[in-house]
Design a protein that fits this description.
seven-stranded mixed sheet; 28% strand; 5 helices; alpha/beta
């Protein structure tokens, strides 16, 4: 089993231009502002307050970097990866000029950051078929390199009954239903995230 054994906040930056190079694979978490990105990052790393969540959707305006220590229990191999928490999209109550600046900075980071190995798109499982999420998937796929992957995690699955869970997986057979409340599939998600990042 693959698990996180350490995690720490490294830095925040508004753009790729001033983002340090860390020399390790980066795993990018992106999704709508209220999808639960901070909660997922905390659950995957077994830290309650590593990533800070805001009660105001759209408040996170920076690219946040977290160094995560990983161990593969099967091989006893240890290594570090970088989790990257991006600003949520959809609900930011900011001036249009600032919003456009965010989009430009994020666009540059996503397209030109050579150390990104995996995009983790978080989607609210209760609203799994929204155009905004479809557009994000298509956007990522439009510049995905051969050494990069995209996976979808469907959050808040504890809110769904079995038939609704089946509907999500029928819509996206490769999707992973997760819940930070009951920890459903958190370990599975971490194992898939790390294996996809390493190309295993």
């Amino acid at each position: 089993m693959i698990r996180a054994i350490s995690a720490k906040f490294i830095t925040s930056t508004p753009s790729i231009k001033i983002a340090p190079e860390f020399g390790m694979s980066e795993i990018v978490f992106l999704g709508r502002s209220n999808v639960g990105k901070s909660s997922i990052i905390n659950a995957l790393t077994s830290h309650n307050s590593l990533a800070k969540s805001s009660s105001t959707p759209g408040k996170t305006q920076l690219i946040n970097f977290f160094e995560v220590g990983i161990i593969d229990d099967e091989s006893a191999e240890k290594f570090n990866v970088m989790f990257v928490d991006l600003p949520g999209f959809g609900y930011a109550k900011v001036a249009k000029s600032l919003h456009n600046e965010w989009r430009k900075n994020l666009d540059e980071y996503l397209k030109f950051r050579t150390t990104i190995r995996l995009f983790v798109h978080l989607i609210d499982s209760r609203h799994f078929d929204l155009d905004i999420d479809k557009n994000v998937n298509e956007y990522i796929k439009s510049f995905l390199r051969p050494d990069q992957k995209l996976i979808n995690l469907y959050t808040k699955s504890d809110k769904l009954n079995q038939s609704l869970k089946s509907a999500v997986l029928k819509h996206d057979p490769d999707g992973i239903l997760v819940s930070t409340l009951n920890k459903n599939n958190i370990n599975k998600a971490l194992n898939i995230i790390i294996k996809e990042t390493l190309g295993r």
